[in-house]
Specification:
This protein is an alpha/beta fold and 233 residues long. The chain has helices at residues 8-30, 41-50, 78-85, 111-122, 176-179, 195-202; strands at residues 2-5, 33-37, 60-64, 66-68, 128-133, 158-161, 171-174, 182-189, 220-226. Strand 8, helix 6 and strand 9 (220-226) form a beta-alpha-beta unit. Bound molecules: 6-phosphogluconic acid. Residues 38-43, 66, 68, 78, 134-136, 141-142, 166 line the site of 6-phosphogluconic acid.
Length: 233
C-alpha cells in the first residue's frame, strides 16, 4: 500500500501519528512494543515529529535497522540522530534502547564483531512491530546496497557492510530476511530524486537490483511518500 502526502513535513507529521497509534496498539495487545529506527533525513524528521506523541515510552524496545560504523557520539551515527531528535526528549527505558556498537565500543574497530553481537541480541526477538526504513536514490534501504554481498545474505541476521557508496563507507545493517521479520515495514521517502527508485521498487524490481523492493512486512508493507517521490509532480 502507498500513502502520498502533500509535503515532506506532512509526511513526517502523519507518519509520527501513524507510528504512535501502531505502537500503542501493540502495547494494548502485549504490554510492550518494538520499533526499528532508520537514519537519513526523512527518518530524522519522523522522529522529531514523534516527540509530542502520547505514548508509554517505558515499555517500547528500540532497535536500529542500520548504523554508520563510527565512534560513539559521532554526529553522523544514526544513534546520535535518534537521541537528538527523539530519545533524549522522551522517557524511554535505557535497558530497552538497543543501539549498534560504535567503532570505539566494546568490539573496537571490528564491524563484523559488532554485527555478530547485534545478531545475538536479536536471537530472542521473534518480530518487530514496526520497522522504519529510508530509501536511497539507487534503491538501497537500511545499509543494503544494490548488487552488494549484503543483499544476497540469507544466513546471517546482521552484517558488516564495507565500501558503501553512501558515506561513511563502513556500516552495520540488518539483512532483508531480518527486516522481513517485522509485522509492519514502512518505507518512508521524499523528493523527486527518489521517484525512479520508488517506482521501480513498487513495480516489482528484483531486490538484488533494488534492495528496497525486498523490504516487506509480515502484515503490512507501506510506502509513505511525498508527492515528488511518488512522481506526482
Ligand atoms: C543511513 C540510512 C539510509 C537512509 C537512506 C535515505 O544510515 O544512511 O539508514 O538507509 O535511510 O539513505 O536517506 P535520506 O532520507 O536522507 O535520503
Amino acid at each position: 500500500m502507498t500513502v502520498v502526502h502533500e509535503s515532506q513535513d506532512e509526511l513526517a507529521a502523519r507518519t509520527a501519528d501513524r507510528l504512535a497509534t501502531a505502537l500503542a496498539e501493540a502495547q494494548a495487545a502485549r504490554g510492550t512494543a518494538s520499533v526499528v529506527l532508520t537514519g537519513g533525513r526523512t527518518g530524522g524528521a519522523v522522529l522529531a515529529a514523534l516527540r509530542g506523541a502520547t505514548l508509554d515510552w517505558s515499555t517500547i524496545d528500540i532497535y536500529w535497522g542500520d548504523e554508520r560504523f563510527l565512534p560513539g557520539g559521532d554526529p553522523e551515527r544514526n544513534e546520535t540522530l535518534a537521541r537528538q531528535e527523539l530519545l533524549d526528549h522522551v522517557p524511554v527505558s535505557p535497558q530497552r534502547v538497543h543501539p549498534m556498537a560504535p567503532s570505539d565500543g566494546e568490539f573496537g574497530d571490528d564491524p563484523d564483531a559488532a554485527a555478530e553481537a547485534y545478531a545475538v541480541l536479536l536471537r530472542d526477538v521473534a518480530s518487530f512491530d514496526v520497522c522504519l526504513l529510508g530509501v536511497g536514490e539507487e534503491g538501497h534501504t537500511a545499509s543494503i546496497f544494490p548488487h552488494s554481498p549484503s543483499v544476497a545474505e540469507t544466513a546471517r541476521a546482521v552484517v558488516a557492510v564495507r565500501d558503501c557508496p553512501k558515506p561513511p563507507p563502513t556500516r552495520v545493517s540488518l539483512t532483508l530476511p531480518t527486516i522481513r521479520r517485522a509485522e509492519r515495514v514502512w518505507l518512508m521517502t521524499a523528493g523527486a530524486a527518489k521517484a525512479q527508485a520508488v517506482a521501480a521498487a513498487r513495480g516489482g524490481a528484483d531486490e538484488a537490483d533494488l534492495p528496497a523492493a525486498g523490504a516487506r512486512g509480515r502484515q503490512e508493507t507501506l510506502w509513505l511518500l511525498d508527492k515528488a517521490a511518488a512522481g506526482e509532480y
